[in-house]
Every structure is written in structure tokens, then in C-alpha cells.
Amino acid sequence: MNLDLFVNVFIPVCSLIGIAWGAVLWKRVAAVKVTGGVAVRGNNGGEYLLEEEQRGDEEVGLLGR
User: Fold this and answer.
1) pLDDT tens digit string along 11-50?
2) Is residue 52 a contact partner of residue 40, using CB atoms and an 8 Å limit?
3) How far apart are CA 51 and CA 65, in angstroms?
4) Measured on CA atoms in the order 30, 32, 37, 41, is the torsion positive or negative?
5) Which residues contact 52 (CB under 8 A, 6 or more apart)?
6) Distance between CA atoms of residues 25 and 15, nearest Å
7) Contact 52/43 with Cβ under 8 angstroms?
8) How far apart are alpha carbons 23 and 9 in whole angstroms?
9) I need a labelling partner for 44 at 20 to 30 A (CA). Which of 5, 52, 57, 62 fits?
10) Which residues pair with residue 48 across a beta bridge?
């Protein structure tokens, strides 16, 4: 009986602690301001943020095989 009570209290308390910790981390990450960054101008005037976006279709097709 005593073990069942412990388990029935321990698991929900741990889950609430985990949810609270996740909310704290979420708030901390949401407060981070993203500044700077490097963007490369493409041929069509758009900015590429990923190296893969800079490649042509032929090169991407060859790498995918």
C-alpha cells in the first residue's frame, strides 16, 4: 500500500517538474535575439541561407544518387 501511494504521487510530480522545466527552457530560448547571419546573394537576387540552396539542380541530383 505504501509503495503504491509513493508511485501514484512520484510519477505525476516528476511529470509536472518536467513540464515546468520545459516551459522555463522555452521561455529562455524564446528570449534569444537572433542577429547577424551570413546570406549569399544568388543569381536571381534572392538570399541563400543554406549551402544546399546555392547548388544547381544537376549538382543536387548527382549528390542524391
Assistant:
1) 999 999 999 999 999 999 999 887 665 555 555 556 555 5
2) no
3) 18
4) positive
5) 60
6) 15
7) no
8) 21
9) 62
10) 40
Q: How far apart are CA 46 and CA 50, in angstroms?
A: 12
For residue 41, the cross-strand partners are 47
Neighbour tally for 59: CB within 10 Å:
11
pTM for this entry = 0.48
> Which neighbouring-strand residues pair with 40?
48
Alpha helices in the chain, H assignment, sequence order: 2-30, 51-54, 57-63
CA distance to 50, 53, 60, per residue, from 65 (Å): 20, 18, 9
